[in-house]
Amino acid sequence: MSGHSKWHNIQGRKGAQDKKRGKIFQKLSRDLYQAAKAGGPEPDGNPQLRLVIDKAHAANMPKDNIQRAIDKASGQGGANYEEITYEGYGPAGTAIMVSCLTDNKNRTAAAVRSAFSHHGGSLGSNGSVSYMFDRKGYIVILRDGLDVDEDSMLMDVLDAGGEDMRADEDQFEIFTQPSDLTSVRDALQDKYDLDTAEVTMFPQNKTAVPSDKVSQYTGLIDELDENDDVQDVYEAAELPESAE
């Protein structure tokens, strides 16, 4: 029995690792698609695509998976993918935006609507919560192995056309206007290795989730994250410290 139990534990760990790896590959596939869609499928002429390909290689993503994601952006492989954003309210009225990439809008809409209803939320109409978010260019530079102080980095960011910077012991976070992301990224890429460079959404304010709603709220976010059609979930929620 002990041998069976040991094998069962090994299987469980492997299953969790495979699931985590699958989610990483899924996210990278979406990033590859978006980069190729925005700047073309040739990495030599698309710095953002080169950045994501490098990240995919570092994560040991198979070359076939990388190429398949790029092919989707150029309409190859027989499937036509469409980007759709859903807006809704989670438990306690928290604003949530769900960015999806799908080849079947009906399937995706039904799944997103079901996730909200399962966990005490509801879908809203277009524009119902998007005004509560700011769209920004976002760049991350990791500090590990980097010999530069915050003042020097800020000067480089401002010289490159960046809007603002936030620093902690692990990383520099750089914010730009969405239209300036490419030029700021290219300027900083000449001096630093970039971990992230994307346009994303930031909440203007956050709604506190009461402790009795935390389980509902996290259940909703988990269900959305598990959906293969969901690219990103943008939240305007603040959880109690004990739940973070």
UniProtKB/TrEMBL annotation:
Compartments it resides in: Cytoplasm
SUPFAM superfamilies assigned to the protein according to its UniProt record, in alphabetical order: YebC-like (SSF75625)
Q: Which GO terms describe its molecular function?
A: DNA binding
Region Disordered, as annotated, extends over 1-24
The record's annotation in InterPro entries points to: Integrase-like_N, TACO1_YebC-like_2nd/3rd_dom, TACO1_YebC_N, Transcrip_reg_TACO1-like, Transcrip_reg_TACO1-like_dom3, YebC-like
Q: Which residues form the TACO1/YebC-like N-terminal domain?
A: 5-76
Identify the keywords attached in UniProt to this record, alphabetized: Cytoplasm, DNA-binding, Transcription, Transcription regulation
Q: Among its keywords, does the record have Manganese?
A: no
Q: One Pfam family from the UniProt entry?
A: TACO1_YebC_N
Keyword Cytoplasm tagged: yes
Top-level taxon of origin: Bacteria
- TACO1/YebC-like second and third domain residues are 81-235
- Family to which this protein belongs: Belongs to the TACO1 family.
Q: What is this protein called?
A: Probable transcriptional regulatory protein AP20H10_04090
**What is the organism of origin for this protein?**
Apilactobacillus apinorum
- What lineage, starting at the top, does this entry show? Bacteria, Bacillati, Bacillota, Bacilli, Lactobacillales
